[in-house]
Amino acid sequence: MAKRKNVLLILADQQRLDTISAYGMNPICKTPHIDQLAAEGMKFTNAYTPSAICAPARASVMTGLYPHKHGVVDNFTCIHDDIPLLGECMHEAGYYCGYAGKWHVTPDKAPEECGFDEGKPFMGYGFPGSQVFPSLIFNQPPDNEPNYYELYLKEHGYEGVDVSHGFLGDNPALQIQEMFCKHEGPVESTIEYFVAHETKRLIDKAKEEDKPFFIWANFWGPHSPSIVPEPYYSMYDPADIPEHPSYCDDLLDKPYGYYLSEKMWGLGNYGWKGFQEIAARYYGHCTMIDDMVGMIVDKLKAEGLYEDTIIIYSADHGDCLGAHKLIEKGAFTFDEIYHIPMVVKGAGTKDNDSFVYLHEMMPTILDIAGVKPPKSVDGESVLPLMMGEQESNGRTEVFCEYHNHFYTHRQRMVRDLDYQLTFNESERGELYDLKKDPYQLKNVCYDPAYADVKKKYLDIMSRYLKELGDPASTWFHRIKEFY
After folding, report:
1. Average confidence (pLDDT) over 383-389
2. Can you give the pLDDT at residue 345?
3. Distance CA 56, CA 49 (A)
4. pTM for this structure?
5. Which of 190, 389, 456, 457 could link 421 by a cystine bridge, Cβ 3.0 to 4.6 Å?
6. Is 478 exposed, middle or buried (0-12, 13-18, 19+ CB in 10 A)?
């Protein structure tokens, strides 16, 4: 029997596709280590998250299911009982399973209760710098005691490290979360370094166990607040970052919730210069994470494990980062948050432009281990696409969903290479002609010239809602003729 490959899944949080320089979309932000993985391996150019909220997307990786099926519809709900989990399946397949970093999968269970042999996760919302950095306003610490990052700082002599230069919006009702801060300590005292350090420890542990491993490493960043030290804090000049083509959006033809989200963050009065400041630190965060990836790769090489390991680098979702004057993610289905990076080293060497989903990592990783999901999942293994054994999966569009984040707003989206239709349950619909309007500025949902196009995509959405047993189906089918 051939030796089974190790699997290292590295998931960033809220990282935009265009910050991975291997995709050739952004000449400023640099990610040389991830680029090298792409050069040795391959990348998917049309990978999408099933939902642009952290926990729903991560729970989908764990289950292979859409959020409305696994139950995690926001950052606080739990995976339904009796759903097979990726960690459990890999453990049963004889893999050593380790977990590092942000958990944010299901709040009622720790990694050890989901099949992982061990790990030091950040439970709950889980920002480990909260209540550790004295000057940080953002206060969402891990639910678990102890805070493993805090212990790491104490053990390595970094106790008391702090932050400065906190940047907040000017909404007086939201003075609770910085967009970025400067980390006043060495790189070795950062959260991202801790995650890389833990990943290296788990690699050692797996080697001791003499088993193939599945390690899931989860960086906090570049999710805000982007807390980065020098040289990354000053690595990118804000003035060099050009205005995003959709920053001019007045949002007048969009759902009203988009306008409210823009106002909530309180960044409008800063103009594009404010987003330049935020983006410069966000880019620095991306490059720091890239260096942490390089450190993990060096560890695999030093242990003689690199050639036997499939490395998958992706993100749970992206960040508007000034697109449409918005920041972060929420009830808006723009490409900047749904279209994600997905780089694979150790399988094939040919890029693939098939539509694939983040939640298909569950059956794919099981396929690498030589097993099938014990129950049906939404999607299929993309290992044949990774290996270059298959040029296309035949998928012509993607279907994505949103339920709840800052406010409850069921939202469904279908998208192909030509058009995107968004069903906003209690708001106006959205239809974008992506060939003419790639930045989704002009909503043509109610333009008579697009009536036939709208009907076509409403029919496509109808098919997905019925086939998936989506609870949004009832209302959609009652009102779609009037939508």
Report:
1. 97
2. 98
3. 10
4. 0.98
5. 457
6. exposed
In angstroms, the Cα distances linking 228 to 34, 180, 213, 223, 384 are 19, 8, 30, 11, 38
Q: How far apart are CA 232 and CA 267, in angstroms?
A: 23
The tokens for 174 are 């939201």
DSSP string, 189-203: GSHHHHHHHHHHHHH
- Please name the helix (run of DSSP H) or strand (run of DSSP E) that holds residue 221, with its range, or none: strand 213-222
Strand order in the sheet with 180-184: 162-167, 180-184, 226-228
Tokens of 195: 């995650």
3-state SS assignment for residue 366 = helix
Burial class (CB in 10 A: 0-12, 13-18, 19+), 137: middle
Show the tokens assigned to 165: 């230069």
CA 218 to CA 148: how far, in whole Å? 14
Q: Tokens 């098939």 map to which residue?
A: 354
Per residue in 434-443, pLDDT (tens digit) is 999 999 999 9
pLDDT of residue 2: 64
Contact partners, residue 187, CB within 8 Å, separation at least 6: 193, 229, 232, 288, 291
Residues 288-335: tens digit of each pLDDT: 999 999 999 999 999 999 999 999 999 999 999 999 999 999 999 999
Q: Which residues pair with 249 in a beta bridge?
A: none
Residue 318 and residue 328: Cα distance in Å, rounded?
8
As a whole number of angstroms, the distance between CA 95 and CA 41 comes to 23
